[in-house]
Amino acid sequence: MPSDGQRLAPKEARDVRVLVLTGYGLNCEAETAAGFSRAGATVDLVHLSEMLERGGRADALAGYHILAFIGGFSFGDHIQSGRVFANRLRFRLGEALCRFVDDGGLALGVCNGFQTLVCLGLLPGVSRARGTPLAAQQAALVHNDRLGYFDTWVKLAVDPASPCVWTRGIGPTIEMPSRHGEGKLLFLDESLRDEILASRLVPVRYADASGAPTEVWPDNPNGSPGGMAGLCDPTGRIFGLMPHPDAYLYPENHPDWIRQRDAGTLPAAGLGLRIFENGVRAALAG
Questions:
Q1: How many CA atoms lie within 13 A of 286 on its CB side?
Q2: Which is it for strands 106-110 and 238-241: parallel, antiparallel or unpaired?
Q3: Which of 56, 57, 65, 171 is most buried, by CB atoms within 10 Å?
Q4: pTM (2 d.p.)
C-alpha cells in the first residue's frame, strides 16, 4: 500500500484492490470475495475492529480501489439494520471514507451493506459536495410491508439510462436471491425522491414475470415504492442493492439450473458475477 496515501492506478484486473469489511454479524465475506476474485481483482478481507484501530487517519483506505459492504446482520440489526455498523464507520473512519470517494473509489453494498451505505449518507449522496464530511442520512430501508424475514429469488429490471457503472450493459432484467426483513426504500421527502428519479439513480427495480417494475408481493418482497431495489450516487460509482449478486456466481446457484441446462440456456457463469466484473472494469477505466 502506498505510504503517501495515494492509490496506484490499476493496469490490469489483478491490480484492482478490493477491501471487504467483515465481522460483528456480517456473513457474506466468502461469497463477496469470490465474486471479486473471479472478476480478476485482488481481495483483502479485513475485520472492522482492525479498520477501527487505524482511527481517524485520512489514508486508512489508501491503496484500495473498491470498498465492499457485505450482507449479514451487523450488530444483530439492533436499532436499525446497518445503523450501528455505519455509526462506527462514520465517527472513526468518516474522513477516510470521504477521501476514498473523492479520489474516485468505488463502493458496492449488498443487503446489510446497502443499509449501511444509506445510514452513512453515501447513498443517495446527492447533497454531499467534494471535500465535505459525510452527509446526513436522507433515506431509510425500513421493515417489509409483510413483516419478517423473507427469502426468495427475484427478477430485477435494470435501467440502462442510470449512471451506475455496476449495472452497465446488464439487462433488460437479471435474477438473483433476495433475503431480508428491512428492505422497503423510503426517502426524507418528496423533493429528494423526485431528484433521485429524475437523475435515474435507481438502477434496479423489482420486476414481475413480464419484466415490468412492480410493488406487488412476492415479486416485490418488501413493498418498496416503484419497485426500487437499489440506489447509486450521482457519479454511478457507489451502488447498493438489497438482492444478492454474490449468491449467484455459479450457474448451479439458480433454482432452475437443471431446466436451463436441458434447454441449452444455462449461462457459463452465474449472472450476479456481471456486477462484480463491471466494478473491476470501472476501476480499470479510472
A1: 6
A2: parallel
A3: 65
A4: 0.95
Closest CA to 241 of 216, 254, 264, 224: 224
How many CA within 13 A on the CB side of residue 162?
Answer: 29
User: Distance between the two ends of the chain, CA-based, in angstroms?
Assistant: 18
- Whether residue 244 contacts residue 177, with contact meaning beta carbons closer than 8 Å, is answered with yes
CA distances 276 to 78, 150, 212, Å, are 29, 25, 25
* pLDDT tens-place string over residues 14-69: 999 999 999 999 999 999 999 999 999 999 999 999 988 876 677 889 999 999 99
Task: Name 90's Cβ contacts closer than 8 Å, sequence gap at least 6.
Answer: 97, 120, 121, 134
227 neighbors 206 (Cβ within 8 angstroms)? yes
Q: CA 106, CA 126: separation in Å to the nearest integer?
A: 16
Instruction: Count the neighbouring beta carbons within 10 Å of the beta carbon of residue 149.
Output: 12
CATH code linked to domain 10-285: 3.40.50.880
**C-alpha span between 101 and 128 (Å, rounded):** 11
**For residues 172 and 192, what is the distance between their CA atoms, to the nearest angstrom?**
26
Do the Cβ atoms of 10 and 3 come closer than 8 Å? Answer: no
User: Are 36 and 280 within 8 A, CB to CB?
Assistant: yes
Q: CA-CA distance, 281 to 64, in Å (whole number)?
A: 15
Exposure of 11 in the CB half-sphere (CA atoms within 13 A) = 0
Inter-helix orientation angle 83-102/112-120, to 10°: 70
Q: How far apart are CA 166 and CA 204, in angstroms?
A: 11
What single-letter DSSP state applies at residue 6?
Answer: P
